[in-house]
Design brief:
The structure holds two protein chains of two kinds.
Chain A (H helix, E strand, L loop, with lengths): L3 E4 L2 E4 L5 E7 L5 E8 L3 E10 L2 E4 L6 E3 L9 E3 L8 E8 L12 E2 L3 E5 L1
Parallel strand pairs in A: 2-11
Antiparallel strand pairs in A: 1-3, 3-8, 4-5, 4-9, 5-6, 7-8, 9-10, 9-11
Chain B lengths: L2 E3 L4 E5 L4 E3 L2 E3 L5 E7 L5 E7 L5 E3 L5 E5 L4 E6 L8 E8 L10 E2 L3 E6 L1
Parallel strand pairs in B: 2-12
Antiparallel strand pairs in B: 1-4, 3-9, 5-6, 5-10, 7-8, 8-9, 10-11, 10-12
Chain lengths: 117, 116
């Protein structure tokens, strides 16, 4: 089965600790994305990557970091600099970013709910 | 500025009644338009999309939406809802950010609550 997996489903962290959220896809997609979801605010883009070893900041990148060492993996680290990290985090992927106005569907993982204690 | 607004944060409706979830956007460039559904503690699933052509688009689970360019709207409708339609619905727009058709901006979401 092709798809996107995120782990863990639930994650608890103490204040001041860094934590890494996993995202893996076996869809052979070049582009991957991380979103943060808060009630009433929809999804906001944290980081995205269009190819291995390349990634770009989204709208709310402060306090987060990513890496893209492999095509299928795009882990997100929530650092202690993130002031309000409690949220639902969603990873997504698409064939590419759609340059030239083309469209490829974004597929979403099941999400990780992070709670800071 | 480019933005997406979902006018209702919650919509309660009785089973088998019709429903409309509203979405408006602000843009000076061409757009692609989407509706996604999210069931509790799950990821998003694409319901339908408008890329070009007919302004009335049909999606999965009996949903449809109409693109109105003059009103910059993309409202989602279903003629008869089921209990299983209870979920959060997100409108999303691609504003061709950096000429990338897959970069999405999401509205705040509308929680559809279907009551028996």
């Amino acid at each position: 089965d092709g798809g996107i997996t995120q782990s863990p489903k639930y994650l608890f962290r103490k204040e001041g600790q860094n934590v890494t959220l996993s995202c893996e896809q076996n869809l052979n997609h070049d582009a991957m994305y991380w979103y943060r979801q808060d009630p009433g605010q929809g999804l906001r883009l944290i980081y995205y990557s269009q190819i291995v070893n390349d990634f770009q900041k989204g709208d709310i990148a402060e306090g987060y970091s990513v890496s893209r060492e492999k095509k299928e993996s795009f882990p997100l680290t929530v650092t202690s600099a993130q002031k309000n990290p409690t949220a639902f985090y969603l990873c997504a992927s698409s064939m590419d970013l759609g340059h030239g106005g083309t469209y490829n569907e974004q597929f979403f993982g099941p999400g990780t709910r992070l709670t800071v204690l | 500025a480019q933005s997406v607004t979902q006018l209702d944060s919650q919509v309660p409706v009785f089973e088998e009644a019709p429903v409309e979830l509203r979405c408006n956007y602000s843009s000076s460039v061409s757009v692609y338009l989407f509706w996604y559904v999210q069931y509790p503690n799950q990821g998003l699933q694409l319901l339908l999309k408008y890329l070009s052509g007919s302004t009335l688009v049909k999606g999965i689970n009996g949903f449809e939406a109409e693109f109105n360019k003059s009103q910059t709207s993309f409202h989602l409708r279903k003629p008869s809802v089921h209990i299983s339609d209870t979920a959060e619905y997100f409108c999303a727009v691609s504003f061709f950010h950096n000429n990338a058709g897959n970069m999405l901006t999401f509205g705040g979401g509308t929680r559809l609550m279907v009551k028996p």
